[in-house]
Design goal:
Largest sheet: none
Mean pLDDT: 89
Order of helices and strands: HHH
Distance between the termini: 46 Å
């Protein structure tokens, strides 16, 4: 079925993206930069890192990227 194949391909693509993000997080651990926001340099809260271990932005910077937030 074409739809189920498309869904499998989409899921595989998402898995590959997450794997790449985890590899980047591991590299940041080794570089000593894990847990710090790439754009602003602030510490990323532990609660966020537990929920999204590959996070490279604090919640404020991520919000700005996703929604154009400015608070």
């Amino acid at each position: 079925n074409f739809q189920s194949e498309a869904v499998r391909m989409s899921e595989a693509s998402e898995d590959a993206k997450k794997l790449q993000l985890l590899v980047e997080a591991k590299m940041a651990i080794h570089a000593g930069s894990y847990g710090f926001c790439d754009p602003c340099g602030s510490k990323i809260k532990v609660k966020r890192l537990k929920a999204v271990p590959w996070a490279s932005r604090c919640i404020l910077c991520q919000c700005r990227v996703d929604n154009g937030c400015d608070f």
